[in-house]
């Protein structure tokens, strides 16, 4: 569910939604979501002073609170 949420938010922010990919790496206590976008859209996903990335991480942690598993977001370039 968290993977779909990150993908939906990222696709709505960028100019090239076809280049958005989210890879899920499972661990015992944590899950890492790796977000890749087109090089021209990286600034749109991070935002000024990292505000959009921080907001995405906040929404992600709120949605994963019920499962008891920690979910983190990494934006890869």
From TrEMBL:
Keywords: Cell shape, Cell wall biogenesis/degradation, Chaperone, Cytoplasm, RNA-binding. This is RNA-binding protein KhpA. Signal peptide: none annotated. It comes from Teretinema zuelzerae. The keyword Aminoacyl-tRNA synthetase does not apply. GO terms for biological process: cell wall organization; peptidoglycan biosynthetic process; regulation of cell shape. The keyword Transmembrane does not apply. It holds the Pfam family KH_KhpA-B. Belongs to the KhpA RNA-binding protein family. GO terms for molecular function: RNA binding. Its main location: cytoplasm. Forms a complex with KhpB. A probable RNA chaperone. Forms a complex with KhpB which binds to cellular RNA and controls its expression. Plays a role in peptidoglycan (PG) homeostasis and cell length regulation. The gene is khpA. It is found in: Cytoplasm.
